[in-house]
Amino acid sequence: MQITRASDYAVRVMIHLAGLPPQSRVRQSALSKATGVSGHFLSKVLQQLVRCRFIRSQRGSGGGYVLAVPAAKVSLLDVVQAIEGPVRLNQCIAEGPSCERKEWCPAHQVWADAQAAIVNVLGGSSIASLAAQAPPGPVKLYRLHDAPVWVSHSEQGRRSKSPGRST
User: Which of 13, 28, 102, 142 has its CA 20 to 30 A from that of 40?
Assistant: First the structure.
């Protein structure tokens, strides 16, 4: 079992946005650079996150992507399920007649316990707590800021703008 690249990239985006002050907008090109995700693939991930209402997009010169919900209210499980659908370790875990053997199969309880562990671990990790754990330093792009930041990618390079501060 392996989480898809799309889920991994969605988590990267959410952590990055959570590391910015509330209502900070980031252009897709800057998100691509900050998360290491190619623009074309990132576009599909962003569309899915918008559809699930975790982020909002705004067009225009002041546009970009912004968190639509508080990062503390979004878990890693929420993001993975937004991209993948319900996490199911094995088909026998599903409700109803998903497997004719589940009533007597010795492995069924192991699958159920493993499923519960995955759900508990991913569900217990908020995007806000992950953003807060990102290490400091020049490469670290998930830092929590005090004031809103608007990030865009231009010919002069990546620029971060906020009141009274420029980088």
Answer: 142
Domains of the chain: 5-85+127-166 (1.10.10.10)
Q: Give SS3 for 61.
A: coil
Contacts of 101 (CB under 8 A, 6+ apart): 92, 108
pTM given for the model: 0.76
| For range 8-19, the mean pLDDT | 93
Contacts of 24 (CB under 8 A, 6+ apart): 17, 66, 145, 148, 149, 150, 151
Alpha-carbon span 146 to 91, nearest angstrom: 45
Question: What span, in angstroms and rounded, lies between the C-alpha atoms of 167 and 159?
Answer: 6
Question: How far is 68 from 50, CA to CA, in rounded Å?
Answer: 9
User: How many angstroms separate the CA atoms of 36 and 27, rounded?
Assistant: 14
The distance from CA 42 to its chain's CA centroid, rounded to whole angstroms, is: 12
